[in-house]
TrEMBL record:
<dbReference type="InterPro" id="IPR042197">
    <property type="entry name" value="Apaf_helical"/>
</dbReference>
<dbReference type="GO" id="GO:0051707">
    <property type="term" value="P:response to other organism"/>
</dbReference>
<dbReference type="InterPro" id="IPR036388">
    <property type="entry name" value="WH-like_DNA-bd_sf"/>
</dbReference>
<dbReference type="InterPro" id="IPR044974">
    <property type="entry name" value="Disease_R_plants"/>
</dbReference>
<feature type="domain" description="Disease resistance R13L4/SHOC-2-like LRR">
    <location>
        <begin position="588"/>
        <end position="910"/>
    </location>
</feature>
<dbReference type="GO" id="GO:0043531">
    <property type="term" value="F:ADP binding"/>
</dbReference>
<dbReference type="Pfam" id="PF00931">
    <property type="entry name" value="NB-ARC"/>
</dbReference>
<dbReference type="Pfam" id="PF18052">
    <property type="entry name" value="Rx_N"/>
</dbReference>
<dbReference type="InterPro" id="IPR038005">
    <property type="entry name" value="RX-like_CC"/>
</dbReference>
<dbReference type="GO" id="GO:0006952">
    <property type="term" value="P:defense response"/>
</dbReference>
<dbReference type="InterPro" id="IPR058922">
    <property type="entry name" value="WHD_DRP"/>
</dbReference>
<dbReference type="Pfam" id="PF23598">
    <property type="entry name" value="LRR_14"/>
</dbReference>
<keyword id="KW-0611">Plant defense</keyword>
<dbReference type="InterPro" id="IPR055414">
    <property type="entry name" value="LRR_R13L4/SHOC2-like"/>
</dbReference>
<protein>
    <recommendedName>
        <fullName>Disease resistance protein At1g50180</fullName>
    </recommendedName>
</protein>
<dbReference type="InterPro" id="IPR027417">
    <property type="entry name" value="P-loop_NTPase"/>
</dbReference>
<feature type="domain" description="Disease resistance N-terminal">
    <location>
        <begin position="5"/>
        <end position="92"/>
    </location>
</feature>
Amino acid sequence: MAEAVVSVVLESVRDFTIQEAKFLSGVSRQVEAAQTELEFMQGFLKDADARQGQDTGVRICVAKIRDAAYDLEDIIETYGLKVDSKKKKRGLKNVLKRFACIFKEGVDVHMIAAEIENITTKISALRSNLQSYNIKEIRDRDSGGGESSLQLHERLRRSYSHVVERDVVGLESNVEELVMHLVKDENRHQVVSVWGMGGLGKTTLARKVYHHKKVRQHFHSFAWVCVSQRFQVRNVWERILIELTSATKEPKQEIKDMTDDEIAKKLFLFLQEMRCLVILDDIWRTEAWNLLEIAFPNVETESTILLTTRNQAVASLPNRNAYRHQLQPLNENESWELLEKKTISENADIDLGMYTKKRELGMDMLRYCKGLPLAIIVLAGVLARKNTVREWERVHENVREYIRKGTGHEEEFKGASWVLALSYDDLPYYLKPCFLYLGHYPEDCIISVSTLTKFWVAEGLIFSRQQRHSLGKTMEDIARDWLSELVERCLVQVGTSGSTGTIKSCRIHDLVRDMCLLRAKEESFLQIKYSLQENTSSMAAEATQLGKIRRLAIYLDKNADMLVSSRDETNGHVRSLLFFGLREWIPKSEKGLLSPLKDFKVLRVLKVEGLRARRVELPSEIGNMVHLRFLSVRRSEIKTSPPSLGNLVCLQTLDFRVSSYIDMVIPNVIKKMKQLRHLYLPWNYRAKGKVELSTLGHLQTLHNLSSEYCDLKDVGRLTNLRKLKIRVLGSLQNLEEILKSTSSTLNRIRSLIVKNDTNSGEEQAMQIVSSCPGIYKLTLDGPIAELPKELHNYPNLTKLVLWSCGLKEDQMGILEKLPNLTNLKLFEKPFEENTKILVFSRGGFPSLEFLHVSRMDQITELRVEKGAMPRLCQLCIQFCSGLTTLPDGLRYLIYLKELTIRWMCRELHRRIEEDGEDFYKIQHVPCLLIGEPLD
């Protein structure tokens, strides 16, 4: 990891000296000497990183190198920003004060120069130290920013799609057996337990059962909750009840307002009266079950609880009509089948002799995987990138080396641990910090890729030098390439994908997370803290950690007294501070809650999302955190932000999407943040005058642009803008003229959301859409009677969301002509109220793959003509109470793989049962997700 840290710091210092050279003139010689020393150091770090586990002296030396590199970056950047700030203030002062300021600045220059020289001397001494350990200089490494890396990433993007759905081997009989026990009517089991060691595929098996056609037809309501090691009983009950009842906003709030006793009783009665399937994934201890089961009926019921666990005691529940299923490891042939699927392409032109040799090597390595699918898949992630027999032989030699390391530490190296260690060490140096960053997230967390990549960019983990080699790519694009590579290496699992094939969310297996946290601790990369209280001891690094703590994740629960300790001396070194669990935590005292944040002087990433504290404000001291690149208070109840926010000149992402009922006051200082790349304004906000945005030339994302408090002319200056969400709040003067003046920018927009909050803004909303012909995604929310006639000529439009538009019925003719539309969502009266029949005509929607119809109560009939939507593969219909039957044309949709029907009238639900009149229309669909009917 020292190689990655030094490379990141060197890249950062290079960029900073280029961009801010005028502010470093007093220390330029020292900075140049430091850069040279870091470049010399780079050559030794590949070997040093590899030798850490063999020699404690090398490990200590590497830790000191990491710290020295980080300290150097902090000093150079702090000095540059301070000089910049002083020069701006100096222009406002008189001559005498100006001379005093220059004198003081000279003292600072001398001190900073001395500090940089001291660190450079330290790095030089550490390099000599490494050489005394016989560490070799290696220069033939991939820089992470060259053409070969670029070509590799391009290949990864092209070949990525096959890893979205994981290959499954050896689970077929397990699935059938579990399904049989779930759907039988006689001698039913209240609880079905799936148990086995970590990495066997228990969650994968549960997912296949959960989505099985017979299971979906048998049960009425479904819920899936990951319990994990750290859980709160109340949260688990809430999530189960919300999922079982498909609760919308108001009912969801009612559930959240219930006492623990009320919610347990309601869940108990619902499970007793309805036929429900609840999956409790990953229960670790019997104590967890004992706490949860109070809300589960212990009398005769048609509902079933399916749980997965590593603990045999949990699987053998007393006093329950339970069935226990032990998942077995894969046999030798199944293990090779899985490895072969992940490493050798079916279409590859492979020599028989090469195949035989690879099989021989693979079978020998598989002996150490013990039939664990996770271990096999991660090993495959290493081998998939090795094309020659010689490369497979090198991995084979490494496997034996890792197994040898585990001798005497069998408990630590059991199961998949050795292969996870191998896969981490096999990562190129530039991916290691990106992977370790995933350790911030709690167990079983669904990770937003959009947010994760912004973290990476803010931390400087993505090299801008590579951006110069990647024509037309942003830093965020490169970050997504690197995430794709982690997916290819089977260290990250894909959660959901977008309409254009990009990854929207991801997750990591809990065993992978364990390895991630272990390495993060060894590298002093990250520390996690739980339940902060006033009497909490110092948050200093534990004895097993070497170096200063640079990143902090804080998991809060109801026992916490505060957000962060202000007495901790390590705060001054932290670069990332991420809070989790804020929505479940209510502070005992709101006064000064955010004040301790002022101690985090070099912080780059701050995520304080979901803070429920109505009298909390961002403190004025936030303006002192000049290193900040990422600041998010999303879903928090913060009403004001201080003018000092304008000091955050390095900020790249500002997320002010506070709770929707909060009317936030925005000072007109955002114009000073010229490095902003992503700006998310509140849903409701006020400002004195207009919020100026024209200076934000790097801006890529602009959410909640208000026609009332922003000047639309500013958009014309945002030449890098790609995503725009705009609110039309009143009559816009000279809109046509404004749109003409901003046309070059609007032509580059790729994602557009237009929210019309007036009854008179329909035409203006459509004018905005007509000015963005290059869009891939379009969302229209609010009254819009007619679509632009030229919409069917938009070459890139693949996703369209219509919400409460009240379109005329004939507008369906425009929609069905969209040639490349793959995803269509119709929500809550997308057509005018007198529209009773929705017709999908023959030949219409030629490319549509995903259709979602929701809350269209006025519709009494859906018609799907033969030849309509020929490529449709997923269809969801819910909350359409007027529909009593499904269209006959569904039987023509031969590519339909998944059909979801939820919260429809009982008559329709009755007709689509296996013996119902409409079942023949959908019997060809492999996956039927039939939810609860309306009362």
